[in-house]
Inverse folding.
């Protein structure tokens, strides 16, 4: 039988098929953080269980941590307690814990790939929906709830029905100023935030294979915003080049053997997908969202769609959303005011994002009306920003760098956008209040964020890019 | 976790005719700092339910005395967004046992079942009927029969069959969870690791 990449990995991990039930799926890598794990550990304790495979589990606090003064104790008592709990649980169960301020610290989905923990053909889970990021390496990676975190801690397995398969092919070549983030926002605007529900996506096509690993991670990261459990890209030379020499990647002979094996990780030529979509890269321009879910996105030169043809709860929901944003149908997005710019998160907090942002603002100045939060996704990214001299470029342009964490992506720490303010954000969700109560989020790429940061208004980055 | 066994529920329902209700609305991130699963119901739909000064917003259904019951009826694509199980805990803690919609986000659906909440998927047309019935009479009763997988509008007798995975149904009916099942399988899992 012709199999998809997804089938190959999934089938190789099924420990048991439950009669008329889900599959018992073996998990190769479990990432945990401070917010969704404490109740799972509590559950283990109540059942008198130990962690089944501590060596396959990696922990770091990211959701809740401050992005300044990380050398000091966390001020917020509840946050401090949560972080402390994670550390204690890791000590008790022999789990590697990357503490705040250490070399291995960062957002879970950034440090996994950086350390080479994320590898092709693996099954990877974490109590965070953007676990889909790791699919960029040709792995099955998806977010789980706390009960499931407890399952994996207790048995290294999870019970899951096998999802359907979808392939999204992007043909052709990306236009100048268009990034992986724009591909993702474009796809979600086409298939909606529920279009991927019940599916696992494989991304294919020339516009995808020419993406860097960072770009592929951004794209797979946003799969969940279409409702899909995850997304993946078949591993290739780009993948192997990125991985080679990383701490937990196979070394020496083992490396060669692994690469030989990984090369087989692709969908068979005639494998059948339940759903297929194909788009032309030439049709994609820099994207921006205007509403309160990631599917409400348009090309930056376009106007906010009218309510024509909408009725019932569709229309009510749409109007509620525009009302929250303070926008009207028919308005142009370009030229609208921006108060905050957030560069960071597991979507766009990698080194490539900082390189793009820095190259763009080089020789320009931050707009005085804009508050910019530049938050590296990990300590390693932060170090690299310094080593590559990007910090000087950023500071020269009037920006400062913060310390790693999830930060304004979900605003659990102090990095909250004030009520009513507009935040041009490179993160992944523009839900009401996501970046702070009453905050208004506009999702876009790091380039579009950079353009807004120097002009103070929504600006098509292509207008300012060198020819 | 342990939850009550799910049998037959007869109850009025609370309408929330909004689409794409995401988990950030169900329970905003700033309330995720607890290390135990208690008391989340107070902050269910926090920012839709309360003004900044903590006073209830009169027009939000949960604050409307007219509406009550163990059934929450939401617009399509309910529970989209994050994997936070706190969303399911908040809904359960508030007192809901059933959420009805024409479409659920995957992770939410799984989290709900793992916490003793039954997600009932109905057709868009039937969903509208439910909203209409509640609009006509907010005390109107609905019946959720898990055994027969049937959701009934008692006043009219109209009903609809809903899908649920047989294994998950068994778990809900008996208040069991997957962890018991997996822990039983330990030897088999160890054998798989070696193979
Ligand atoms: S950056 Fe945002 S989406 Fe990513 S793990 Fe942190 S909170 Fe989740």
């Amino acid at each position: 039988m012709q199999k998809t990449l997804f089938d190959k990995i999934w089938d190789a991990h099924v420990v048991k098929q439950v009669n008329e039930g889900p599959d018992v799926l073996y998990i190769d890598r479990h990432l945990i953080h401070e917010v969704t794990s404490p109740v799972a550990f509590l559950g283990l304790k109540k059942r008198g269980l130990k962690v089944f495979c501590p060596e396959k589990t990696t922990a770091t606090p990211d959701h809740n941590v401050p992005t300044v003064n990380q050398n000091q104790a966390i001020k917020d008592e509840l946050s401090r307690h949560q972080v402390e709990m994670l550390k204690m649980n890791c000590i008790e169960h022999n789990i590697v814990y990357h503490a705040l301020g250490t070399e291995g610290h960062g957002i879970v989905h950034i440090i996994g790939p950086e350390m080479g923990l994320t590898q092709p053909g693996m099954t990877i889970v974490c109590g965070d929906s953007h676990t889909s990021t790791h699919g960029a390496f040709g792995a099955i990676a998806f977010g789980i709830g706390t009960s499931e975190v407890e399952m994996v801690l207790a048995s290294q397995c999870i019970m899951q029905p096998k999802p359907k398969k979808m392939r999204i092919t992007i043909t052709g070549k990306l236009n100048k100023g268009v990034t992986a983030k724009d591909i993702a926002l474009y796809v979600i605007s086409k298939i909606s935030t529920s279009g991927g529900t019940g599916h696992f996506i494989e991304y294919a096509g020339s516009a995808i294979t020419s993406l860097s690993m960072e770009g592929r991670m951004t794209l797979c990261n946003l799969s969940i915003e279409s409702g899909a459990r995850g997304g993946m890209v078949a591993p290739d030379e780009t993948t192997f080049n990125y991985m080679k020499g990383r701490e937990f990647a196979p070394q020496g002979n083992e490396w060669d053997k692994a690469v030989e094996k990984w090369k087989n990780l692709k969908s068979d030529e005639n494998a059948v997908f339940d759903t297929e979509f194909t788009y032309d890269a030439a049709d994609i321009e820099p994207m921006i969202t205007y509403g309160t879910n990631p599917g409400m996105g348009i090309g930056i030169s376009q106007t906010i769609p009218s309510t024509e043809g909408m009725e019932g709860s569709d229309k009510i929901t749409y109007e509620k959303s525009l009302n929250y944003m303070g926008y009207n149908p028919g308005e142009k997005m370009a030229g609208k005011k921006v108060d905050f710019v957030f560069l960071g998160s597991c979507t766009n907090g990698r080194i490539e994002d900082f390189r793009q942002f820095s190259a763009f603002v080089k020789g320009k100045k931050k707009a005085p009306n804009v508050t910019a939060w530049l938050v590296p996704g990990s300590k390693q990214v932060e170090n690299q920003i310094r080593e590559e001299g990007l910090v000087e470029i950023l500071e020269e342009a009037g920006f400062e760098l913060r310390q790693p964490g999830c930060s304004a992506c979900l605003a659990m720490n102090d990095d909250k956008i004030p009520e009513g303010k507009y935040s041009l954000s490179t993160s992944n969700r523009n839900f009401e209040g996501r970046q702070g109560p009453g905050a208004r989020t506009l999702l876009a790429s790091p380039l579009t964020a950079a353009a807004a940061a120097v002009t103070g208004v929504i600006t098509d980055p292509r207008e300012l890019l060198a020819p | 976790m342990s939850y009550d066994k799910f049998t037959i529920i007869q109850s009025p329902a609370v309408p929330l005719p909004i689409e794409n209700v995401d988990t950030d609305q169900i329970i905003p991130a700033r309330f995720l700092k607890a290390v135990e699963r208690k008391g989340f119901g107070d902050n269910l739909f926090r920012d839709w339910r309360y003004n900044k000064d903590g006073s209830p917003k009169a027009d939000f259904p949960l604050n409307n005395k007219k509406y009550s019951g163990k059934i929450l009826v939401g617009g399509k694509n309910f529970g989209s967004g994050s994997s936070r199980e706190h969303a399911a805990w908040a809904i359960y803690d508030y007192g809901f046992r059933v959420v009805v919609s024409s479409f659920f986000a995957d992770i939410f659906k799984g989290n709900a079942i793992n916490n003793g909440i039954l997600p009932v998927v109905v057709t868009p047309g039937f969903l509208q009927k439910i909203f209409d019935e509640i609009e006509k009479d907010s005390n109107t009763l609905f019946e959720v029969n898990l055994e027969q997988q049937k959701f009934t509008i008692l006043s009219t007798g109209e009903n609809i069959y809903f899908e649920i995975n047989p294994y998950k149904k068994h778990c809900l009916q008996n208040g069991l969870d997957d962890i018991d099942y997996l822990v039983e399988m330990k030897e088999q899992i160890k054998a798989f690791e070696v193979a």
Chain A touches chain B through 66 residues (CB under 8 Å). Residues A 62-63, 107, 109, 128, 130, 345-346, 406, 409-410, 427-428 surround iron/sulfur cluster (CB under 6 Å). The mean pLDDT of chain A is 96.
